[in-house]
């Protein structure tokens, strides 16, 4: 465990912040621009992974494991989100034969 902490601390914290910001921005862009439900769910996962990277980096630099505990809970939340999200996507595809979210307007009364 000590080698991992020294390796993480060898890279400046600013690099982790910049990488997490870029990954998070890619995820936000994917959610806002794309209309495919699968791509939107993948973009949400990218945003969660950016937060996980940042929490892990801060946790390692501070020497406190509380950030890594939060990462565990975020990963559990992401797994539940994927399970529910894929079930929703399958039901949308069965009803509309498309994963385009603009087609969902046909499901309104």
UniProtKB/TrEMBL annotation:
One Pfam family, short name: Oxidored_q2
Main location: membrane
Transmembrane segments: 15-33, 40-61, 67-93
GO MF term list: NADH dehydrogenase (quinone) (non-electrogenic) activity; quinone binding
Enzyme class: translocase
Keywords: Cell membrane, Membrane, NAD, Oxidoreductase, Quinone, Translocase, Transmembrane, Transmembrane helix, Transport
Subcellular location: Cell membrane; Membrane
Known partners and oligomeric status: NDH-1 is composed of 14 different subunits. Subunits NuoA, H, J, K, L, M, N constitute the membrane sector of the complex.
Role according to the record: NDH-1 shuttles electrons from NADH, via FMN and iron-sulfur (Fe-S) centers, to quinones in the respiratory chain. The immediate electron acceptor for the enzyme in this species is believed to be a menaquinone. Couples the redox reaction to proton translocation (for every two electrons transferred, four hydrogen ions are translocated across the cytoplasmic membrane), and thus conserves the redox energy in a proton gradient.
Name under which the protein is recorded: NADH-quinone oxidoreductase subunit K
């Amino acid at each position: 465990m000590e080698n991992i902490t020294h390796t993480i601390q060898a890279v400046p914290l600013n690099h982790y912040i910049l990488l997490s910001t870029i990954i998070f921005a890619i995820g936000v862009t994917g959610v806002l621009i794309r209309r495919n439900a699968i791509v939107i769910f993948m973009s949400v996962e990218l945003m969660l992974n950016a937060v996980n990277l940042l929490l892990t980096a801060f946790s390692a630099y501070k020497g406190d494991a509380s950030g890594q505990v939060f990462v565990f809970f975020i990963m559990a939340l992401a797994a539940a989100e994927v399970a529910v999200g894929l079930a929703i996507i399958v039901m949308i595809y069965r009803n509309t034969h498309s994963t385009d979210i603009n087609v969902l307007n046909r499901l309104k009364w």
